[in-house]
Amino acid sequence: MKIINSPEEMQRTAQNIRRAGKTIGFVPTMGYLHAGHLSLVQTARTSADLVVASIFVNPAQFGPNEDLAAYPRDFERDEKLCRDAGVDILFYPTPGDMYLEEHSIWVDEESLSNVLCGASRPGHFRGVCTVVAKLLNIVLPDIMVLGEKDAQQLRILRRMVRDLNFPVKIIAAPTIRETDGLAMSSRNKYLTPAERLEAGCLFQSLEKARALFAAGERAAGNIKAAVRAAIEATSGKVDYIELVDDETLRPVQTLEKPALLALAVKFSKARLIDNTVLQ
Amino acid sequence: MKIINSPEEMQRTAQNIRRAGKTIGFVPTMGYLHAGHLSLVQTARTSADLVVASIFVNPAQFGPNEDLAAYPRDFERDEKLCRDAGVDILFYPTPGDMYLEEHSIWVDEESLSNVLCGASRPGHFRGVCTVVAKLLNIVLPDIMVLGEKDAQQLRILRRMVRDLNFPVKIIAAPTIRETDGLAMSSRNKYLTPAERLEAGCLFQSLEKARALFAAGERAAGNIKAAVRAAIEATSGKVDYIELVDDETLRPVQTLEKPALLALAVKFSKARLIDNTVLQ
């Protein structure tokens, strides 16, 4: 596995790979890798000749009161995990090389970004879109693998690829979970042991919603109320519980088309998200 | 010369050209071509194996009170000019194929866009950046040739290519002028015959500024006053006359580093721009 720090060298390397007729599968990450990331790498391996993973804790997607400085980092461990998972190139740039002096270009999404996590994290998806646009131009992948756990991010990046015509195919990979259903996330590390025992409630609340839906419930209000009750039985505080159209992310009252049920829950130091599609 | 309307077909064609090891030179235009555009094509021909030109009157870069509907178009003539100039592929998409339903991604420039033409045309450069980001992803050029006439656009697109890491090299080509110095522009067509006789004043005012600068004048105010006097001797109305740092586009009082002298002048139906770098 080759480690590349310089964006220029990464881009040159990618151009040479493509000139040689090989395809590139790309997994963008913020590091502190877990089994969820590694499953994305496996998907990329089966879909392309070479796998590039990136590790970059993107300052532009953290708000002023968010956890940029505290965001967990462990490059040595990440490096070993990538090597063992069969990553061919690990792209690991510095913030200073990614955002040059007088950086003034931003990629904005103006419809899907205003709800769910975008509502409580203003500027977050602008940071995500900008860094992923940069990474796509640096890594030049044929396919990019994204996790379904970040449901809104996945939909916004699909929209970005469509609207800016990036020559890349996005593959969505299913959420990987702990045995109690908790979605794997680098932020799970922020949970206290007591909170960790409770944090399965996100998944369990989604299971309840799926059961209600399977039994014929179509009123968004009833489904959301059941989800809320399951969360509020723990110390977790609901940030949002939303049922939105799976395409437009506009709120739905009655479920007729595929709907995204998404929630964010705050524990003392961890803000966790999860989602499911009801269809 | 091949004419391609579909963005998907253009992108596939570009990918095949690159896979075959050939380089692509790209000249984006809004059509109604003149000798200025054709000189960009010549520059592209000497710098790449194949030349792609695009003709697309981009709705997103026109303001609500601007000349989108009236913007001059003549595809048959443009097609012949491109063929004769040695364009290999003419990309000619429809607005509906370039901006799909629910288009919601925009590329914003937040520093260089707030002055000069950006100040009098809010949203203009956002439209320019968005469409050029799309065109770069569709045409996948190795080099893109832009005219120096659109000085602010050139600097903003250089910034976009830098900040979003587009794998393309920008080549700037000098302004082509009529015999009286008037910069070639599709909008010159809007001039009445009497205004056409006066419109050389833009170039002549820049000549005056260059002469003052060569004689040692370094006070921006004095140079701008001379330019204004030359314009105001005609029926043209000054939209702006600015002397700005050539890199940052911030106003300068005293010329120490290379400075961009840029002006926009309104005649009855035509808004004309021109510029020079004083160094």
As a percent range, the share of helical residues of chain A equals 25-40%
Total helix count of chain A? 10
Order of helices and strands of chain A: EHEHEHEHEHHEHEHHHEEE
Radius of gyration of chain A: 19 Å
Strand content of chain A: 15-25%
Tell me, what's the shape of chain A?
A: globular
Number of individual domains of chain A:
2
- Oligomer category: homodimer
Question: CATH first level of the largest domain in chain A: which class?
Answer: Alpha Beta
**Major interchain interface with per-chain residue totals:** A-B, 34 and 34 residues
Give descriptors for this structure:
three-stranded antiparallel sheet, Pantoate--beta-alanine Ligase, Chain: A,domain 2, 279 residues, Rossmann fold, homodimer, alpha/beta, six-stranded parallel sheet
Brief summary of the model shown:
The first copy, chain A, has 279 residues and is an alpha/beta fold. Chain A is built from ten helices and ten strands. In chain A, helix 6 packs across helix 7 (151-163) and helix 9 runs antiparallel to helix 10.
